[in-house]
Amino acid sequence: MANTTEIRLAIDIGGTFTDVVLDGPFGRVTRKVLTTVALPELGLMSGAKELLETVDLDLSKVEVFVHGTTLATNAVLERKGAKTALIATAGFRDVLELGSEGRYDQYDLQISKPQPLIPRERRYTVSERMDAKGNVKLGLNLSELSKVAQELKRSGVESVAIAFMHSYANPAHEEMAAKFIEDALPGLSVTMSSDVCPEIREFERTSTAAGNAYVKPLINGYLERMEAALTAANFTGRLFLVTSGGGLTSIETARRYPIRLVESGPAGGAIYAAQRARRLGDKRVVSFDMGGTTAKVCLIQDGEPITANSFEVDRTHRFMKGSGLPLRIPAIELVEIGAGGGSIAGVDKLRRVTVGPESAGSQPGPACYPNGGPGATVTDADLALGLLDPAAFAGGRVVLNPDAAGRALDAVVGQELGLSTKTAAFAVAETVCESMASAVRVHAAERGEPIADYTMIAFGGAAPLHAAWVAEKVGIKKVVVPRNAGVGSAVGFLEAPVSFELIRSKHVNLDVADPDDLAAFLDGMAGDATALVKSDGEALIERRVAHMRYVGQGHEISVVLPGRDTPLSGALLRRLFETLYESLFTRFIPAAAIEVLSWSVTVSTAKKPVGRTAPVPCGGQPSEAGFREIFDGVTSKSIVVPVYRRPQMATGATISGPALIVEDETSTFVTSRFTASIDGDGCIVMQRNAA
After folding, report:
1. Rounded distance between C-alpha atoms, residue 140 and residue 521, angstroms
2. Do domains 8-76+221-261 and 265-489 have the same CATH topology?
3. pLDDT tens digit string along 275-317?
4. In CATH terms, is domain 8-76+221-261 a member of 3.30.420.40?
5. What's the CATH number for 499-605?
6. pLDDT single digits (tens) 418-473
7. Tell me, what DSSP letter sits at residue 665?
8. Phi, psi dihedrals of residue 194, rounded to the nearest 5°
9. Maximum CA pair distance of the chain?
10. 3-class SS of residue 101
11. Do 423 and 453 form a contact (C-beta atoms < 8 A)?
12. Which residues does residue 503 pair with via DSSP β-bridges, in sequence order?
C-alpha cells in the first residue's frame, strides 16, 4: 500500500464507472462511483469529495491531481464529436476516403471501412502547393480561402482541420490559412496537421488532424468545466492529464492536442500492469483490462508496454489491423473492444448470441441496476450465474436486482433460443469471454508472440471475474490479480512519469548525413518538448529515436540513439540500424542504402524505481467467509462454492477452484482448473493445475 507524504489524487472516468484513488501519509484509499455521462465532471467531483471525506480532507489539501478519461475515445467510437470540416490542398479532397488504398482483408469482396469523421460535404479545398522539400510551388489562394470561410460560417461547423500537402516540410501555408480562418471566424476551433502531426504520409497526417479537430471542442469544454469546478473547491495543486503514450502532460498541452488523450485510461492500465510485471519479475505479460464499457489487451515485455508511433481506433472487422481510423500519435499499443460489464447482449439473424459493442453504460445501465435499461448485459449474466453479490456490488453503493436481470435475459436471449434463464446467462458470459480471447489471440498473432507463454495480469471492475475463463481459452497458465485491481488504471496514473514526445519528419540519407545539422534539428525538438513538460523542477531525461529503413522499404524500425553529446555520423547511424535490424530479422543487408524518415524526442521525468516481490511459502488455508450457489454452464448444474474476503486472506493463503474471492471494487472467480494463492505483494496468483 502506498505511503507518501504528498497527497495525490487520481481519477479515471470510464464509460460506466469513475474510479478514484487517493494516496498520502494515511496509505491508499479507493472508491468507484457511477459516471455521470452528460456532465462527467459531476461524477468526478462527487467521487473525489466522497473519498476525501473518508480521511477528513478536502480538495484544498490535494497537492497533485492526475486525470484520465475515455471521453475522446467514446466520442470517436460513437461519432459524437464536434461538427467538423476539413480544408485540404486542391485535388486532395478525398484523402480521408481513399486512405492508403490498402485492404486489411485481401479476399473480402464486401470489405467495409470505418466512416471518416468528416463527411465529404464538409471537406473543402484551396489552391496551394509545397513540394516534399518545403519549397513553395504555388502560393496560397486567399480568395478561395475566403469563400471557404463563408461556407464554414453558413454550415455552422464547430471545428476545422487544415491539412495541406507536404506541410510537415514547410507549415507556412497552414499557418497562414489558420490565421485567416481565426480572424474571419473568431471562436472556431482550428487544428493544423503540421502542428498535431508534422510527419510524412498524407492520409495518416490528415486523419490525425481530423481526429484532433473532431474531439477538440468536446474535450476543451469538459476541461474548462472541470477546472472551474476544481477552482470552486479550492484546489490549488498541480493538475496533469494522462496521454495515450502513458505519460503525464499539462492541461494546456491537453487542450492543444486532445487527440493524445484518446487512450489515456487504457494507457494508465498498461502502466499499472507493467509496474506489477516488474515486481513479479515476469518478462512476458499480457494485461487484461475489462471495465463497464470496453475490454483492453496490451502486451508487456521486459517490464515495459509495447509502444508505437501510430494506432487505430474503431476497428470495424474482427479487430484486424488496417480496419480502423489511423492516428499518428505516440501510444501504448493495445487492442480495445466493446466487451465490458455493460455490453448489451442479443441474438442475430443466424440465432447466435452476440455481445456488444453497444453498452448500457451507467445511464440507464444494465437491467439489474436501479433504474436500469431493458437490455440484457454481461453484468446481468454474471448476476444470474451467481458470480455477483447483489448487495455488495461496487462496495454496496449499487444494489443489484436479480429478478430484473433474469427478466432481461429471458426476453433477449432465453425466449429467442428456448433456453432457461441461467443457460442464457452462461451463453452471454461464454460469448463475451470468447470475444476477449479472440482479441488476445489476434493481438499476439500480429506481434508473432506465443501467447501461451505469457502471464496475464487482470484488472478493472470486470476482468478478475472473467480472467480465468479467458486464460483457459488462450492457453495461459498464470493469472495475476493485483491489489486495487478494480481501480487499476487510476493507480497507474499515479505511477506515470511527466513526459511529452515530439515526432517530426526530416528525410536523411545516411550517405550524406550532416552531424551538425542533425544535432541542431534534434536539439530544437528537445527544446520544444521540454517547453511542453511541466516538471516542477524535477530532473528531465531525454530519449531520442530515429525511424529508419532501407531505401525502397515501406516501413521503418525505431532505432534508439545515444545522448546529445555523441555526434550522429552516417557510419554510427548505420551500425545502430544494422544491429537492430539483425536482431529483428536475423540478418542485415551489407552496404545497402539506408534512410531516416522521421525523428522523435521524448522528454520525461525519471520513473520511480520498482523492487521485486519477495517470495513467500504457499499452503496456508484462509477462513471461509461463506458459500454461494453458482451455475456451472459446462455441466448445466448449480454448484456451491466457497467465498473468501480478500482483505482477510493472509500472505501465502492457498485455495483450489472453483471459488470466489470478493472485495469492494471487484470479484475474482477461480475456476476449477486453477489454484490461487496470495503473494508477498498481496496479489492473487492463479496457477493452472496440471492436466
Report:
1. 27
2. yes
3. 999 999 999 999 999 988 888 899 999 988 988 887 877 666 6
4. yes
5. 3.30.1490
6. 999 999 999 999 999 999 999 899 888 888 889 999 999 999 989 999 999 999 99
7. S
8. -70, -15
9. 80
10. coil
11. no
12. 600
